[in-house]
Amino acid sequence: MKRRLPNAVAVLLILVLAGCASSTERQEQTDKRDRRAETHVMLGASYLQRGQLEVAKEELDKALSEVPDHSQANNIMAVLQWRLKKYDEADRLFRKALDKDAGNSSAHHNYGAFLCERGKLDEGVKHFDTAAGNALYPYTAEVNLNAGVCLMKKPAPVAAEKYFREALRINPRLPGALYQMARLSLDSGKNLSARAFIERYFQSAEDAPDALLLAVRIEHVLGNKNAEASYALRLRNKFPDSPEAGQLQTALKTRKK
């Protein structure tokens, strides 16, 4: 003879089973929203990189309509608002991104850069340090470079140099770090070291007006007139309308007096 379950137990089992089905369905819906949000975030970031701000905002708005608390969507939207010079809104969104995911290294990196630009140097460096502490983050060299540049604004060249050297330890061909080390070396009278760094820079990157002007200064201090003239010619020919070309012309006129 079959034993019947008490009514109360039967009802409980039905409710539990129904709850499981409902929970599974909700999870599937959540997963779908997350996937759609991820797609919109990737598209938004791609458009933002290309400078298509309006289309980028449309994609990021779609991502946030799917998942309002999506950390990376808030992070990228913050960068967009920063580009639009809506600084209060950018700050709010960066904070929201990190509130939802304190381990979002990209958000720490971007927020650090934002804070440094806004003059909050120490706070910015703290966020850079957090991002750099994540060994899985693929841009730790760039984070260290940005932290060093931030510290140069104080100015704190000794502290900055540690970050530049760490950036070069991770990526020995990082152009920005090579340029900064050439600059620091020249400023501290380490002229041969400055030359070595700027030569490594030109092996790793295309000519840039600030780097060419720095190379002119380095070779002038070292007394190598041929190299100085060569760098000066490259600067005038490639970037005739740049501020650096103007600075070079002013410096040459001053020397002739």
What attributes characterize this protein structure?
disordered N terminus; 80% helix; 13 helices; mainly alpha; 257 residues; elongated
Average residue-wise pLDDT: 89
Element order, helices and strands?
Answer: HHHHHHHHHHHHH
Uncertain segments of ≥5 residues (pLDDT<50)?
A: 1-5
Tell me the CATH architecture of the domain at 173-257.
Alpha Horseshoe
Q: How many individual helices?
A: 13
Please identify which CATH superfamily of the domain at 173-257 we are dealing with: Tetratricopeptide repeat domain
Which topology of the domain at 173-257 does CATH recognise?
Serine Threonine Protein Phosphatase 5, Tetratricopeptide repeat
Rg, rounded, reads 27 Å
Please give the largest β-sheet: none
Q: What sort of overall outline do the alpha carbons produce when their principal axes are compared?
A: elongated
Helix content: over 70%
* The CATH C-level class name of the domain at 173-257: Mainly Alpha
Strand content: under 5%
Whole-Å distance between the termini?
117 Å
Write up this protein.
The protein has 257 residues and is mostly helical. It has helices spanning 7-49, 53-66, 71-83, 87-100, 105-117, 121-132, 140-152, 157-170, 175-187, 191-204, 209-222, 225-238, 243-256. α3 (71-83) runs antiparallel to α4 and α5 runs antiparallel to α6 (121-132). The chain starts with 6 loop residues before the first helix and ends with a helix. The model is unreliable at 1-5 (pLDDT under 50).
